[in-house]
Amino acid sequence: MSQHDYNTGDFFLSERSLPQLLSQGGYTLYSRHAEATIGVDQPNLDFTNCQTQRNLSENGRNQAHTYGETLRRLNIPIMTPVVASPFCRTRETAAIAFGEGSVYVDPFWVDVYNLSFNVTPAQQQTILHRVQSILETQPQPGTNGVIIAHSFPANIGLGPIPDMGTVVIRPRGQGNGYEVVAHVEIEEMANWGV
C-alpha cells in the first residue's frame, strides 16, 4: 500500500491517521457520485426520470457500497441525513452507501453541476459563495457531514474530483471558511484499516 501524506495546514497527516481523525467527527466529506456510464444527460433532463440522465454502472454501485461499508467498518460517525444532489446517480450513490431513508436531496447541488457549462461570472460567484457557506458550517458535534454531488471544473471551487473521490474538509464555522484536509480516491479509502 502506498503511503500518502495530507497537508492539513497545521500538520501532516498520514493515510493511516486520517480515519482516526475522522472517527472524532468535525469534518465534511464532499464526494463526487460513483461511476456513471449508463445513458446520457438529455436536454430535457427530468430528475424524476432516470432515463433522461447518466446513471450508475455496476462498478459505480460497487464503489458506493465500498464507500459506505468502509465508513461503517471504521466506525466513522456520519451525521444523517446525508445530502445528495437531485440527479439519479447522486441519490443512488448516497442510498447505496447510507440507506434510502438516510438521504436528503438538496436541489442547490445542481448549481455546482452547472458550473461546468455556461454560467456568467456573477452566477459562478453566487454559486461559489453558497458552496463556501455550506462547507464552512460545522456538523453536529462528534459526527461528520457527507455531501454526495458533483465534480467542479478545473481551478474552480474544489476542482476536479474522480468518480467516488472524496475531499475531506475541516469547516471553521460560519463566516470563517474551511480547510481542505485531503483528497482521497475510493481505492485508497477501501484500504483504510486493512
From TrEMBL:
Superkingdom, natural source: Bacteria
Pfam families: His_Phos_1 (PF00300)
Listed InterPro entries: His_Pase_superF_clade-1, His_PPase_superfam
This protein's name: Fructose-2,6-bisphosphatase
